[in-house]
Amino acid sequence: MAKRTKKVGSVGRFQARYGVRARTITRNIETIQKGRQDCPKCGYKKVKRISTGIWQCKKCGVKYTGGAYIPETESGQNAEKMLKGEFEFPDVSSEEPKEAESKGGKK
Ligand SMILES: [Zn+2]
Question: What angle do CA 59, 61, 66 make, to 5 degrees?
Fold first, then answer.
């Protein structure tokens, strides 16, 4: 069967509505959301989204939480690093001394 929506993919259902930009953003998310992802436990590309933030592997059956639309988000990775103690707060520690220096310079 010939592929019907080569260019627009899953957002073909919107036809010409909502604008190109909004449809492109939606498509980028939906391709990950609806497709199969790599399993963190067994490595097979069998993970599917069950519900918002819930992902399950169809191969080994492992069920885990992740991002709402993608299995792993950047903020989720940072949260895990913090729990492991690897993450140090770069924004807080680097910005505070600079503010003190600039205040001192004005005086
Ligand atoms: Zn698995």
Answer: 105
The pLDDT of residue 82 is above 70:
yes
- Predicted TM-score (pTM) of the model is 0.68
Decide if 86 is inside a domain.
Answer: yes
Structural domain that includes position 96: 73-107
Which residues are within 5 Å of ligand 1 (an ion), measured at CB? 39, 41-42, 57, 59-60
Q: Give mean pLDDT, residues 26-34.
A: 93
Going from the Cα of 62 to the center of ligand 1, the distance in angstroms, rounded, reads 6
Cα 13 to Cα 15: distance, rounded to the nearest angstrom: 5
